[in-house]
Amino acid sequence: MADLDVELRVVTMSGRQVDLTMAPEKSIGEVRQKISEILDIGKWQLRLVHEGASLKEGFLHDLMKPGTCLELLALVVEEPEMLERCKLLHKCFNNRQFVYCYGSLRQVSQVVKTEKEAILNGDVAFHFEGDNLLELLLKNWKVQDIEEPMSWLLSGGASVNQCSSDGCTPLLSACARGLGKAGLILLQHGAKAHETGPNGEDSLTSALKFFARTPVKPRSCEEDMDLGRLCCLLRASDIDRGNRTLNVLERARLALSQAAIELGLCASVGTTLNKQMILDRAFDVEKSSLEAGAGEDLWAGWPGAFFSFSQPLSQDSAWDDSFSLARARILSHWTDSGQMEVDNDGAVYMG
Questions:
Q1: Domain range annotation of the chain
Q2: How far is Cα 138 from Cα 159, in angstroms, rounded to an integer?
Q3: Which CATH number fits domain 6-77: 3.40.50.12580, 1.10.287.990, 3.10.20.90, 3.40.50.720?
Q4: Which residues form the Ubiquitin-like domain (predicted)?
Q5: Is the pLDDT of residue 217 over 70?
Q6: Residues 6 or more apart whose Cβ sits within 8 Å of residue 339
């Protein structure tokens, strides 16, 4: 324990005692989050009392006294006002545009904005009536309205992995709707890439299926580029997960394939890719497979087999539909062609 860490002793009304240490720069909100996790209750249900006063704002260093242990009383409360807030927000995140509030029909985004502070402070049941509010947001709201409330929910303590009653996690719902930027943010916050939904599909499958569909409404190039980047990260995660059961040659081929899709999926029109460029990108290719003279076995099926999201890699050079459709979707922002051609030297022209 560092000399400046704060010792805390938390006692519940039932007499349970929890001792822990935290850095003095931690906010009261972070303290509440930590203690609520230890006590296995919602942060919104926890009230911390110090010397007769309820702690709501500030930092630990505002309360610490040198050489003493900070004693806190933990109360579990479910105030009617907070329950009504949770019910209202559940309705808001479960609807696309409007919700009845205070006797009138109001826009959900405006209602949620009035509860911004409560969301950021964690005074909300982020999992309410069997639903993860973050998942509901990503499943139901208009794309242009998602970014800001998503940041509030994540800052407040919403789970990136908890399912809603429909069996979907936030990442699964984001991928099903082609929300690449949201998916990238979820991965940064620790979302699990390999969870499957009620239909048995994982996030990568859902995202690739979105690419294969004709969009209902026009999307920006950046939205499709973000989804492409997300697909590449999800594929990399799949490879890392399965590498322990693969031999050296299989690992090398998958590393080359990963490099190929990363270079090729979002490449600009007219880019030409060859084997050396793929090798240079694939930093983690097993050098021993090259030194052992894998030769033609290493590149079997080039190029089509390598521009693929599939596992294991085929040795057939036919192009993988999932990659081709995703590439064509991204290219549609610039050209109607999207044809990929191979020259006599085996280089791939990304039309």
A1: 6-77, 246-350
A2: 13
A3: 3.10.20.90
A4: 6-57
A5: no
A6: 351
